[in-house]
Write a structure and sequence with these properties.
Largest sheet: 9 strands, mixed
Bound molecules: flavin-adenine dinucleotide
Number of strands: 41
Radius of gyration: 27 Å
Number of helices: 20
Structural class: alpha+beta
Strand content: 25-35%
């Protein structure tokens, strides 16, 4: 074994081997994979080997599509077969709700370039004759599904990596990881120590243990999983003979079952409700190529449904039941990327579908390590997406919930109950007493809306408008016409201070930093000129800035801030960053009476002139020391008031008492989001994401190219000079009783006209490579943009996609935001656009000016 390597990959399962292959392909050949036993000694060897492209997150779906198309490539390079069976598969809906869900998935798939099709149960039966069609109302066909040989595939990655120069050491456990002052990792193994610049945790079932070697508790848990194999079935043999084809894969939502042909019998796996974690605290190091004891009783309820839906299977003899463990993160997607707080320590673990996702994970991670950026929008699997609140017990509860709901519908207004409440503010009980329906915002209980007194504070989950519609409308109208108060503790808050603070922020942010006592809004870009943040920044003192941003992006942003801190020499101490998390909480008051209300609580003059729009001031509010921003996301006259948690009850009580004479109302997050829609305000992670440039995102006025050389400036200047290809726009939609949720296709009646490239970007900037390892710049490779332009219906063509939307209660319109070709972005003509909601195309019209207070007069008064 060599003593030095550029990178050491720990773990020889499918994920470690894919990471090794992609690193080698990207040109890093001084790399070493260290495996405790033989390759595939974790969960990889006993996987059912199924693969598919669909995923709730379109960006992850795109990386899954890349994984599937990669298999041919690694077979060619390695000479090792993956035994690929690209059979296609169907998802079966047994209720109209599940059919709505499939319609949504199908609509989303359109601009991802997925070739899905909605079909009837009898059409599904023609491809999988064991299915009793009377149990179903419809289905969706996906041609890019199938199964492969898990062991062969892992070895194909490994052989291909070796051919490109990578080294693999077997039967050698990594026992310790230490880091030198210069950042070099000592990878201590049973066979000696390797010094490495980078370490990658691909430990699968042992990912937690490897994390603990560097002081990190990764939110990952292994679950037992069972599938059964039947004896040969005459029906299967007969089908193969008469059609010359293999049976397809079937996913049955009702039974939480997947099934497909395996040899001349059937494989049937379940995601049972009574699921069971495996080794919840520690994974034994001596666990090898072993299976767990099957427990048929646990999966009996799923099997019962399965036998009803696929009657032939019940009659077949069961040849074997496989029970094996594999790992999950809280939401079922992988944990990939650099771990915040550490240098050059990378993760590619919690990959629950290694044969659907392994390739995409390897590609994104290798891009990140080699080029400093994943090159794709990988937020859905970024290791930074969970906070400290994801402790082992929290993770345990959430993973069990996720597993047992693997094939369940998640409705757009559905909040999941496991592990809650976790974090609460001092106002939690008060909010419950006010009949708030609470939601989970990055582990924090946050009021979503307030149910009328006497009614149960509970969402009726639906794809359509639901029981919150009336109350939210009431909250919005009362706020817009009088005054409302809401909790905003869930925002991210940071303080950047020190003599180098301003230079640091000027280097990171696209806007000029404000003068003391003033506020600016500013995006943040990566080197490729793509949006990676959107902040409110106040200059609180000569060397002190307060920053507010998206709560879910706190670790993601801290990782970026830390990466760019001055590291060496005297400048190293010039900038300090503090993340407050829940040590700073907030309340926002908004509406025409908010100034009169606040004035009653403070002893300073807050008239328009004394406390202007976008001013920041420290002042006592209701007797509590607070920071106050004259700004609100509702777009009204309004204020954000920030205080230590110990004062939050005091301030809230004072606001409530003072607000009585003005008809103050409590409003929740959903009313806030409704109000921002009618102001055309974007939200982070929906409208603004790393796949968009700042001009595409219509953030032009916050991009000050001339101010200084900020990160991403050159790329942004290029985007501006060339003119953005896409633009973020707002629509008014002629919706029925359902509004957009996000990711719906936008159709335009373009006739023969070509409005330029209208592709949804997934990849950007970072170079990509062809099968021979050659760099292909600017290519539209499968892992890159999605071809939406190909979807045509007469004069109509899919030209874009929705990012978010809903009902704008004050202007009484259904609204949507999304991206369309720049040439169409200002075309407000009626009859030009349609947006597909739950499979039905609804007329939509671009609305350039916000429908509420277009001149911005109300928030400035
Ligand atoms: C019953 C079952 C059915 C499944 N069906 C499917 C399916 O149909 N489709 C699909 O995509 N996925 C399926 N999966 C999931 C799939 O198996 C996993 O997604 C995949 O195996 C994860 O691979 P990995 O490389 O991350 O982890 P693992 O396969 O667990 O590999 C981790 C490796 O790291 C090594 N290692 C750990 N610690 C150290 C150390 N300290 N030093 C050196 N080496 C170390 C281990 O020995 C092991 O070989 C199934 C899983 C099970 C259990």
């Amino acid at each position: 074994m060599k003593s030095h390597a550029k990178a050491v990959v720990i773990g020889g399962g499918v994920v470690g081997c894919s990471v090794l292959y992609h690193l080698a392909k990207a040109g890093w050949t001084d790399i070493l994979l260290i495996e405790r036993s033989e390759l595939t000694s974790g969960s990889s060897w006993h996987a059912a080997g199924g693969f598919h492209t669909l995923n709730g997150d379109p960006n992850v779906a795109k990386l899954q599509a890349y994984t599937v198309q990669l298999y041919k490539e690694i077979e060619e390079i390695s000479g090792q077969s993956c035994s690929l069976h690209l059979t296609g598969g169907v998802m079966m809906a047994d209720t109209p709700e599940r059919m709505d869900f499939l319609r949504l998935a199908h609509a989303k798939g359109r601009y991802l370039g997925m070739d899905t099709e909605l079909i009837t149960p009898s059409e599904a039966r023609a491809m999988f004759p064991l299915l009793d069609e009377t149990n179903f109302v419809g289905a969706m066909w996906d041609p890019v599904e199938g199964h492969l040989d898990p062991s062969g595939t892992t070895h194909a990655y490994a052989k291909a990596a070796r051919k490109l120069g990578a080294e693999i050491v077997l039967r050698n456990r990594v026992v310790e990881l230490t880091q030198e002052v210069d950042g070099t990792w000592n990878v201590v193994t049973e066979q000696g120590t390797v010094k490495a610049e980078h370490v990658v945790n691909c430990g699968g079932l042992w990912a937690r243990e490897i994390g603990r070697m560097v002081g990190v508790e990764l939110p990952v848990l292994a679950m037992e999983h069972m599938y059964l194999l039947t004896e040969p079935m005459p029906e299967v043999e007969e089908f193969n003979k008469s059609t010359g084809r293999e049976m397809i894969g079937v996913l049955d939502f009702k039974g939480e079952i997947y099934t497909r042909q395996e040899r001349n019998g059937i494989l049937l796996g379940t995601y049972e409700k009574a699921c069971k974690p495996w080794s919840p605290v520690n994974t034994p190091w001596d666990f090898g190529h072993e299976l767990l004891q099957p427990d048929i009783d646990r999966i009996a309820p799923s099997l019962e449904i399965g036998f009803k839906h696929f009657p032939g299977i019940e009659k077949a003899g069961i040849k074997q039941i496989i029970n094996g463990p594999f790992t999950f993160a809280l939401d079922g997607n992988p944990l990939v990327g650099p771990v915040q707080g550490l240098t050059n320590f990378w993760c590619a673990c919690a990959v629950m579908a290694g044969f659907s996702q392994g390739g995409g994970v390897g590609l994104a991670l290798s891009n990140w390590m080699v080029h400093g950026d994943p090159g794709f929008d990988v937020w859905g699997m970024d290791v930074a997406r969970f906070g400290e609140w994801a402790t082992p017990r929290y993770t345990n509860a959430k993973v069990r919930e996720n597993y047992s709901r693997r094939f369940s519908i998640r409705f757009p207004n559905e909040e999941l109950p496991a592990a809650r409440p976790a974090q609460t503010t001092p106002l939690y009980d008060t909010m419950l007493a006010n009949n708030a329906v609470m939601g989970d915002s990055w582990g924090l209980e946050t009021p979503l809306w307030f149910a009328p007194k006497g009614s149960e504070p509970k969402d009726i989950v639906s794809f359509h408008r639901s029981n919150d519609f009336g109350p939210i409308g009431e909250e919005v109208r009362a706020t817009r016409e009088r005054v409302g108060v809401t909790e905003i503790a869930n925002f991210a808050k940071y303080e950047v201070s020190g003599p180098g603070a301003e230079d640091f922020l000027n280097r990171l942010m696209t806007n000029r930093m404000p003068k003391t006592g003033r506020i600016v809004l500013t995006p943040m870009l990566n080197e490729f000129g793509r949006l990676i943040g959107d902040f409110t920044i106040a200059k609180a003192g000569e060397e002190r800035f307060m920053i507010w941003g998206s709560s879910a992006a706190q670790k993601y942003h801290m990782r970026w801030f830390e990466k760019h801190l001055p590291k060496d020499g005297p400048r190293a101490s010039e900038v300090r960053i503090h993340r407050f998390d829940q040590t700073l909480v907030g309340l926002s008051i908004a509406g025409p009476k908010s100034r009169d209300l606040l004035q009653k609580l403070v002893d300073v003059d807050i008239s328009t002139k004394a406390f202007r729009f976008m001013d920041f001031r420290e002042m006592a509010v209701g007797g509590a020391p607070c920071m106050v921003n004259r700004i609100t996301y509702t777009g009204d006259l309004g204020y954000e008031i920030w205080m230590a948690p110990a004062y939050q009850r005091l301030v809230y009580k004072a606001i409530k008492e003072a607000g009585e004479e003005f008809g103050l109302i409590d409003f929740g997050m959903r009313a806030l989001l409704s109000m921002r829609l009618e102001k055309n305000f974007p939200t982070w992670f929906r409208e603004l994401r790393p796949i968009y440039g700042p001009f595409e995102g219509s953030m032009d006025r916050f991009i000050k190219l001339e101010k200084n050389d900020f990160i991403g400036r050159e790329a942004a200047a290029r985007e501006q000079a060339a003119g953005p290809k896409l633009r973020r726009v707002s629509f008014i939609v002629d919706a029925a009783d359902a509004d957009v949720m996000g990711d719906e296709p936008i159709w335009a009646k373009v006739g023969g006209k070509d409005y330029g490239t209208v592709e949804k970007p997934h990849g950007y900037g970072a170079p990509r490579f062809d099968a021979g390892g050659k760099e292909v710049r600017g290519s539209n490779a499968a892992e890159g943009a999605s071809a939406v332009r190909g979807i045509v219906d007469g004069d109509w063509r899919v030209v874009g996609w929705v990012t978010s939307g809903g009902y704008a209660h004050y202007v009484e319109k259904s609204m949507a935001q999304g991206y369309v070709p720049a040439a169409l972005a200002e075309n407000e003509s009626a009859g030009l656009f349609e947006i597909e909601i739950l499979g039905h195309r609804r007329p939509a019209r671009i609305n350039v000016e916000p429908p509420f207070d277009p001149s911005g007069e109300k928030m400035r008064t």
